[in-house]
Amino acid sequence: MDTDAQLSERDRSPAPDEAPGDGMPDQDAEQGSRSARFSRRVRLARQWLTGGGPLRRAGLLLIACLVFLLLVSSYVVQPFQIPSGSMQQTFQVGDRVLVNKLAYRFGDEPRRGDVIVFDGTGSFVQDTPSENPVTALIRTGASAVGLMRPAETDYIKRVVGVGGDRVRCCDRRGRLEVNGRPVLEEYLYPGDEPSRVPFDIVVPEGKLWVMGDHRSDSRDSRDHLGEPGGGTVPLDRVIGRADWIGWPLGRITALKRPDAFADVPDPGGPGGGTGHSGGPHG
């Protein structure tokens, strides 16, 4: 008998990467291999991020800052460049105001006297203007950080009436009335009348009546009375509330709601909610 052959056959054992009886690779070895590959990728990524010299690090820092600014401007606070004189004297052309996008996110709604930024599509703009996709992308990114004017469909105005309010102009002394109460608009541009065009409207629920502070140089709700929506702005089109002037440095200030509407009664009271629902009166 060949003793060496018997010993050799007796000592034969399964290969380390085979499980006895099923021929499958060892799971611990496979998991270890995956972990090693992941660790190697993390190491390579770290080397790429920290290597390359100061220029690469500066570029990565710049990209990170831009991404952070875009996220903040999309969800928290967005700079808005004032494109016209319709809100003088409150704002001057070229001012950068900071729009609080969280102001109405948690159940609160715009109030009389608030200055809001809104998308005028469907109210102030019936046909959305076409724009080159590349130009639109550049403008969106630049306007998000206040470097360019906003889209043509974005407006900034003051809330004068909320849902249910009767807003009319003017009374015998030439003053704006809301729910039968005269409003002393101290924020108006010096020398401006509350409105040269008479109107009398009840604001539908879920809508806003908005006007510029420079009434003789503002296209606002008055100019769209005969269009779909009657010049009112839907609440879901409001982008946010202008809470601060952030630029230029000499004009940095926080914006406060004026006291002009403090004594206006709720809709449906004496003189409120009984006007026309959509057109100027004679």
Question: Care to describe what's here?
Answer:
- The radius of gyration is 32 Å and the shape is elongated.
- The longest helix is centred in the first third of the chain and has 24 residues, at 27-50.
- The chain is α+β, with helices and mostly antiparallel strands.
- The protein has two domains: 25-75; 79-261, Umud Fragment, subunit A (Ribbon), CATH 2.10.109.10.
- It starts with a helix and ends in a 28-residue tail after the last strand.
- Strand 11 (238-247) and strand 12 form a beta hairpin.
- 24% of the residues lie in helices and 20% in strands.
- The strands form two sheets. Strands 1, 2, 3, 4, 9, 10, 11 and 12 form an eight-stranded antiparallel beta sheet that branches. A four-stranded antiparallel beta sheet has the order 7-6-5-8, with no helix packed on it.
- The chain contains four helices and twelve strands, in the order H-H-H-E-E-E-H-E-E-E-E-E-E-E-E-E.
- CATH homology superfamily of the largest domain: Umud Fragment, subunit A
Q: End-to-end span in angstroms?
A: 126 Å
What percent of residues adopt helix (DSSP H or I)?
10-25%
CATH architectural category of the largest domain:
Ribbon
Radius of gyration: 32 Å
Helix segment count?
A: 4
Class of the largest domain in CATH?
Answer: Mainly Beta
Order of helices and strands: HHHEEEHEEEEEEEEE
Sheet with most strands: 8 strands, antiparallel
Give the number of DSSP strands: 12
Could you outline the blueprint of secondary structure elements for this entry?
Layout: H1 3-10, H2 27-50, H3 53-75, E1 77-81, E2 96-100, E3 115-119, H4 133-144, E4 154-161, E5 166-169, E6 176-178, E7 181-183, E8 199-202, E9 207-211, E10 233-234, E11 238-247, E12 253-254
Antiparallel strand pairs: 1-2, 2-11, 3-4, 3-11, 4-9, 5-6, 5-8, 6-7, 9-10, 11-12
